[in-house]
TrEMBL record:
Keywords: Membrane, Transmembrane, Transmembrane helix
GO annotation, cellular component aspect: membrane
Provenance organism: Atlantisia rogersi (Inaccessible Island rail)
Membrane-spanning segments: 118-141
Protein name as catalogued: UPKL2 protein
Superkingdom, taxonomy of origin: Eukaryota
Length: 176
């Protein structure tokens, strides 16, 4: 990697990486986009490979396109002024990216759920359906009781011949 190479030139273009250039420059930006963290221990994240639309566009040599494979890769940061390096970091440790598995290689059944778990889930689902059906039936039957078609629509008259309050025996009016 040659720090004298200016960003946006064919010698540092993303589209020529890794076959024709060993490193590329990307994300030409100002310091305003990467302020110092306001909280102790906070970090600012730079996601490499997040621009997929410019990967084949030769007019965007500073494209932050997807990396061609899992790596390993190393990164460094440069602070430039008028395309000249002012400060640079050391190279990072090698970073190997995780590779996604093809969809066809993912097992659809068998590896996570036992037969007992499936049977228990089925039984509980059936019991829940029965409970919900009973609840709906109670709501339908209960709505008929409020409309007056039930036998409980007329309250009976209740008479009490004698009622003692147990704590008021000293008052003669309370005794009947």
């Amino acid at each position: 990697f040659n720090t004298s190479v200016e960003p946006g030139t064919p010698e540092s273009a993303f589209q020529r990486f890794p076959t024709h250039v060993p490193a590329y420059m990307t994300l030409n930006t100002t310091i305003l986009n990467y302020p110092c963290p306001k909280t102790p221990g906070g970090i600012t994240v730079l996601r490499v490979g997040s621009e997929t639309s410019c990967a084949g566009d030769e007019t965007r040599p500073t494209c932050n396109g997807p990396l061609p494979g899992p790596g390993p890769y190393r990164v460094k940061f440069l602070a430039l002024a008028d395309s000249k390096p002012l400060v640079e970091t050391a190279w990072s440790d090698p970073i190997t990216l995780r590779s996604a598995q093809p969809f066809s290689s993912i097992a659809a059944m068998g590896s996570r759920h036992s037969a007992g778990m499936i049977a228990l889930t089925s039984i509980l689902s059936i019991l829940l359906a029965i409970l919900l059906a009973g609840l709906v039936a109670m709501l339908v039957w209960g709505s008929d009781a409020c409309s007056g078609s039930s036998t409980f629509n007329k309250p009976e008259a209740v008479t009490v011949r004698r009622y003692n309050t147990h704590h008021a025996y000293d008052q003669p009016a309370a005794r009947l």
